[in-house]
């Protein structure tokens, strides 16, 4: 599927129909509508009857085309808008810290900002940072009455304050506070004003799911009524010890843990459950990226219907692993990911190889459904390239390489479907040190459980497991209730981790059942069915009648898997001895269907350095290969296609005949230094820049966008003269580099609607581009 950004909203029925038809023609499975900031005159403000009518029209059109249709329950992220007043807005606990003398003080309570609510005041003997304890100060008639003391003292005043965070990237008409994710009343208000109208407009029967994007409610760590909730859930009173949240002392650590756990439970009870139960009442699944702020636990996912992650990095712990672990533990066979979020920035730089490589990283992290990020709605008759999202790829039919998109998406569909079959084999568990993460989430650190946990688990732990050819699930204190300790052969508990008593008992049961509890997996890993070389990731899934393995080369060099002995369940008469994976190539190994490899001999027939011609539109001229468009000033900003042609002579056509372009050239990881670390790109300069369709004697022979850059010509080949035609497509980045209209559009909407986005890395659009036929192909004969 694709996330479909509706800018403005500035939407027209005819363009909705055209873009949905283009998605279907490319082989995409559906669209998830996301309402974001304006890129032009607003024609249907968010929440207006016209917008809701267009949502319904899009849902019906998608169904007629066989596409799934999902809707985000709000504009931008996180949920919020003009309906959110101070009573329902996200809040934080604000502290005022003062050193005072020994005299008594009367301090009036003053609301510095709308919505400020006094919480409590405390005084402790000693100067700043010196008090070993504090006592609560009485409040009467709106005055904090600090009594006299015999020495310098410190006063702490706690105020519940609206964070002030507004909805990020909001559409026109959707501006306003981010809502309080710990409040059921706030969730109900958002459902009434935003979610319910959107769902009813689309029609529940036409929706694949309703969606909530990643949680980014910054510093939201307070909610009205938390004192009562804390006492009910933790069994003691928070109020007299509230200062322990602010003054970081080791002996006060447990209260910080209990407070963090309470926030997680309030998020689950008053946000997740409220939206899931409301959606279920309409018969629609609730899908969410449940990580970030507020402090969602891995197990918080269990209160939603569909689990989604984000982020690549198969040897690390990306957000996708947070979601895929929850899916496996809580019995969800499908787990999705927002994929291509920052792919090869800026927009239009991404190649099909970039998309394939990052998709493989998500598959290796346990994902089996892709939600592309994304497809920008853009009027067809607009000037320049049209509209793009401020960050991420512009993955639509404006890309010159789009003729190969159908083959690319078909390959990803096949892998997604296959990886939804059976169950994952993950013999290792990694314990999430949630207690330590809660304790470490201080005043100056985000209240982001996932992010703190990722810091507390050494990167060597997941890397050691994955590079050994094994896989793992994360497991937390809630998940132990549904995981049989007898089914855990190995669990890694990071050194120094704090574990609650119930978890310690469960870990003891793992050991009693024959499993191991270790701090470092290096010396304790079981043997893997496949031991891969560096850079090759393995996913093992078990079916009722056998197993299969997805293997992917995640690097820019060819790598070979070697099988010295048959695997125990490898039922072929002869084992597969070797398997070479080209850069960013994947394969599926099915032992029950394996066949012996047959050695073949490649014979170089000729290097095709002949009389080549190239045609740009109707302009045909002779050309010498390699031919890089950017070397010609007249072509440096050209985005589109070119047709290369040459005649070749074949004296025989027995055996196999291949056209081979060579392997491409690896590039250094730091060759594009402006890219952030989360911006995926394939580290290779291809021999074909960036995709091609190959025809022999006007017969389609295949498309190229990834190694091995080889096409089978056998069925089209004939003895004598053959006409080889190669249609090469580049990216739209060349044209983007000179699209002054896009910059003018951004400036205009910023002037009219305020600064809601910055075009990411747009000044680097022309960097490191390689378009054209960049190598001399050869004819390879295989006998």
UniProtKB/TrEMBL annotation:
Top-level taxon in the UniProt lineage: Bacteria
Listed Pfam families: Glyco_hydro_106
InterPro entries, A to Z: Class_I_gatase-like (IPR029062), Galactose-bd-like_sf (IPR008979), Glyco_hydro_b (IPR013780), Ulvan_degrading_GH (IPR053161)
PANTHER family assigned: DNA-BINDING PROTEIN (PUTATIVE SECRETED PROTEIN)-RELATED, SECRETED PROTEIN
Listed name of the protein: Alpha-L-rhamnosidase-like protein
Species the sequence originates in: Kribbella rubisoli
């Amino acid at each position: 599927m694709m996330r479909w950004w509706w800018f403005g909203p500035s939407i027209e029925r005819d363009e909705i129909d055209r873009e949905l038809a283009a998605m279907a023609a490319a082989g995409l499975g559906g669209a998830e509508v996301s309402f974001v900031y304006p890129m032009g005159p607003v024609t249907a403000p968010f929440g207006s009857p016209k917008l809701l009518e267009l949502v319904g029209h899009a849902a019906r059109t998608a169904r007629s085309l066989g596409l799934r249709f999902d809707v985000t329950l709000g504009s931008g992220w996180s949920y919020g808008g003009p309906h959110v007043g101070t009573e329902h807005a996200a809040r934080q606990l604000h502290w005022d810290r003062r050193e005072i003398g020994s005299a008594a003080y009367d301090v009036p309570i003053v609301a510095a900002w709308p919505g400020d609510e006094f919480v409590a005041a405390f005084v402790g003997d000693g100067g700043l940072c010196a008090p070993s304890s504090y006592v609560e100060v009485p409040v009467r008639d709106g005055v904090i009455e600090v009594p006299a003391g015999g020495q310098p003292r410190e006063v702490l005043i706690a105020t519940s304050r609206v964070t002030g965070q507004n909805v990020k990237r909001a559409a026109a008409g959707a501006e306003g506070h981010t809502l309080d994710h710990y409040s059921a009343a706030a969730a109900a208000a958002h459902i009434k004003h935003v979610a319910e109208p959107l769902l009813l407009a689309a029609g529940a029967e036409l929706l694949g799911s309703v969606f909530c994007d990643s949680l980014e409610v910054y510093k939201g760590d307070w909610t009205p009524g938390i004192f009562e909730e804390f006492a009910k859930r933790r069994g003691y009173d928070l109020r007299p010890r509230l200062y322990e949240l602010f003054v970081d002392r080791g002996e006060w650590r447990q209260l910080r843990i209990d407070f963090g756990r309470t926030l997680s439970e309030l998020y689950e009870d008053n946000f997740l459950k409220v939206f899931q139960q409301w959606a279920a009442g309409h018969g629609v699944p609730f899908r969410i990226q449940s990580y970030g702020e507020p402090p969602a636990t891995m197990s918080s996912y269990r209160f939603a219907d569909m689990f989604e992650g984000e982020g690549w990095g198969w040897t690390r712990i990306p957000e996708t692993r947070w979601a895929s672990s929850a899916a496996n533990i809580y019995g969800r066979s499908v787990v999705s990911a927002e994929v291509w979020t920052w792919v090869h920035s800026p927009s239009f730089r991404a190649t099909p190889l970039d998309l394939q490589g990052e998709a493989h990283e998500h598959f290796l992290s346990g994902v089996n459904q892709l939600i592309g990020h994304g497809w920008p709605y853009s009027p067809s008759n607009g000037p320049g390239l049209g509209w793009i999202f401020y960050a991420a790829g512009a993955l639509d039919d404006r890309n010159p390489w789009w003729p190969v998109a159908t083959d690319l998406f078909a390959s990803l569909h096949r892998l997604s479907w296959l990886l939804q079959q059976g169950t994952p084999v993950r013999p290792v568990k990694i314990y999430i040190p949630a207690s330590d993460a809660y304790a470490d989430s201080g005043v100056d650190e985000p209240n982001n459980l996932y992010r703190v946990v990722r810091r507390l688990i050494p990167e060597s732990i997941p890397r050691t497991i994955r590079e050994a050819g094994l896989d793992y699930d994360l497991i937390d204190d809630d998940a132990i209730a549904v995981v049989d300790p007898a089914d855990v052969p190995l669990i890694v508990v990071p050194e120094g981790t704090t574990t609650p008593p119930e978890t310690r008992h469960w870990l003891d049961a793992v050991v009693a059942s024959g499993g191991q509890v270790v701090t470092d997996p290096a010396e304790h890993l079981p043997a893997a069915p496949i031991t891969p070389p560096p850079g090759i990731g393995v996913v093992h899934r078990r079916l009722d009648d056998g197993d299969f393995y997805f293997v992917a080369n995640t690097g820019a060099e060819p790598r070979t898997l070697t099988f010295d002995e048959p695997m125990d369940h490898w039922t072929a008469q002869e084992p597969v001895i070797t398997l070479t994976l080209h850069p960013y190539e994947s394969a599926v190994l099915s032992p029950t269907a394996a066949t012996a490899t047959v050695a073949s001999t490649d014979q170089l027939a000729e290097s095709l350095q002949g009389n080549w011609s190239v045609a740009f539109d109707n302009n045909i001229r002779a050309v010498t290969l390699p031919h890089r468009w950017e070397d010609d000033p007249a072509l440096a900003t050209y985005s589109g296609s070119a047709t290369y042609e040459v005649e070749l002579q074949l004296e025989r056509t027995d055996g196999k005949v291949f056209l081979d372009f060579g392997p491409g050239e690896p590039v250094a990881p730091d060759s594009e230094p402006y890219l952030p670390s989360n911006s995926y790109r394939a580290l290779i300069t291809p021999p074909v820049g960036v995709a091609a369709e190959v025809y022999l004697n006007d017969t389609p022979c295949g498309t190229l966008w990834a190694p091995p850059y080889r096409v089978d010509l056998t069925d089209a080949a004939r003895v004598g003269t053959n006409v080889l035609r190669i249609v090469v497509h580049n990216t739209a980045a060349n044209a983007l580099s000179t699209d002054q209209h896009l910059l003018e559009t951004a400036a205009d909407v910023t002037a009219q609607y305020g600064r809601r986005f910055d075009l990411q890395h747009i000044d680097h659009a022309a960097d490191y581009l390689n378009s054209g036929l960049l190598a001399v192909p050869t004819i390879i004969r295989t006998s």
